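name: query_chain
kind: protein
chains: 1
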Amino acid sequence: METEKRIVYLDNLRNIIIYNVVVYHAFLAFAYPLLFWWATVDKDGSARIYETAIRTMYVYMMPCVIFIAALFILPSLQRSGALAYIKKRFTRLYVPVIVFLFCAGDIFPYLLSKRIGNLSLTYPDTFIAFWRSFANIPLIYFSDADKIMNTIGFNFYHTWFLTLLFFLTLIFVLARLPFAKKAAKPVSLDSRNKIILKTILFAVTLSLVYFAVAWWYVVHDIQLNGWTLLGKAVIFENIQIWVLVPLFAFGLYAYKKEWLTRGDIGSWKIWGMLTLIFLGLYIYLMHFIYLPEVEGMYKIVEHNTLFEDKLEMPVIGDYLARVIIPIWLLVPLACVFILMFLLSFAKKFFNKPNAVTAFCSKHSINVYILHYIPILIFQYTFLNVPVSPVLKIVVMIIIIAPACLWLSHRLVYPHPKTAILFFVTLKLIALAAGFEFYYWALLAIIFISFTGAVFEFTKFMASRKKAKC
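structure:
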């Protein structure tokens, strides 16, 4: 959307969530044993607080992003037309996925293989195995996060969200084509109480559906945290899809009813109280009851994945089962309520445009794509460094977020074809020269980009100060 037509607080909220994703991925190295399969997991630095944090961020991050993304589809579609819009969306969402997978898709399995002791595996071997796995994947494929430790398999990693968003958008645009020429009916504006009531009914319905699906999955031995890959092109988590698709539809509905422009969605205090109750209860159950009970199970799963002598899995007791059921019910409720809290809070306090937030919004998708590999590189670098995990996380965020912004600003956004050529060429050199070359080259790019970001930000602040004088 054009700058003057954008809804400022939605851009600002999306910025916050995207940079929350950077924090989320930085935390993953310290979430052992919950994420025992992470390529650069730091077992010594891990703590339950990080496990709780990532499970909490998981509840709202991508559902909030997909809701906000849905809000911008109709106005962009009306301006561009169906064919031009789909072409633009493919370029913006799917081309980066393809480039990322070719240039960096094999970095995660290579670092994982080094961590678990497969030192004889060369980097070109990993690249070939990664793409051979892609060629062998059937059109409908069910994967499990636990299995990635056994073999080098194809994975979309964090770009899974871009594939899902593109295909949901494509389905919506195609479904809308027969009705595109019909005149739009005047919208009857919902009252504040009606909006709140509809939202609460949506949250409760979503909670019941989510619980029913989770129960059905467990009964039929379907992995809740497993993944479904369709047509080698779109991937989603088996259980989270039941939140993401409804939130996408909810975003379309909210835009059609003009809730976020002309409507009153309620006070941030109301939604904040509901968030405090339901998300607080979720955090309590997760941190003090669920995780203490299952951490031992995850260590057994890790052992059974890596070694021939299999350990017997403990039976989930009635006590733990009574905790899992309310967690299933709480996830959608907490997700919807925190979404409404963030929307109402941002509308109240972050609704003024400024150059910094506009700049961050412009580059948010690129930051989402670019940050993943720098996070892995830094986590790998820090593995044997005897400093506090908090310090490691702070350093990663302080360096990587500005570096990705600058790289997007100076290379990826203004010169996308040059950026693709640059990263593909670097990848081809790395396949010939080895991973050590790639590691140091990527590390150099990160620090050069960070230095450039610091320099330009300093220059920008100095110019603003001079303009005020």
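note: The first strand starts at residue 140 and ends at 143.
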